[in-house]
Amino acid sequence: xxxxxxxxxxxxxxxxxxxxxxxxxxxxxKARDLFLYRSNVKPVEERLKKFSLAVGGAWVASCLAxxxxxxxxxIFNQYDPRMLEKLSYDDKVAGVVARESNGRPTYCENxxxxxVANGGQGCN
Length: 124
Hints:
This protein is mainly alpha-helical and about 120 residues long. The protein has helices spanning about 1-5, 25-70, 80-90, 90-100, 110-115; strands at about 10, 20-25. Helix content is about 60%, strand content about 5%. A two-stranded antiparallel ribbon has the order 1-2. The longest helix is centred in the middle third of the chain and has 45 residues, at about 25-70. The radius of gyration is 34 Å and the shape is rod-shaped.
């Protein structure tokens, strides 16, 4: 719409016997169309640009936040067999695990391991 209002010619398309015809706009038509563009179309275009930039910025920010959140590794992986083996002989790591789990068995956070532990004894 904006490009047609700013154009100096009128392009007819599929409206009758004058299909594809071009006609120059008169000065009054140019002034009217320019006024319509500036008062009705241009503000909407500017709002759409701002909205699109805001949505794009929010999308980029959410992608970055997801990337940061998913790349952070926990101090320990309580279900990793190597970590469980290390816990059996390293008291320092076992202390960190105990602090991280707030005194509860670590299987309380996982439905599968809670079931394997006979219903999650000590989780309540």
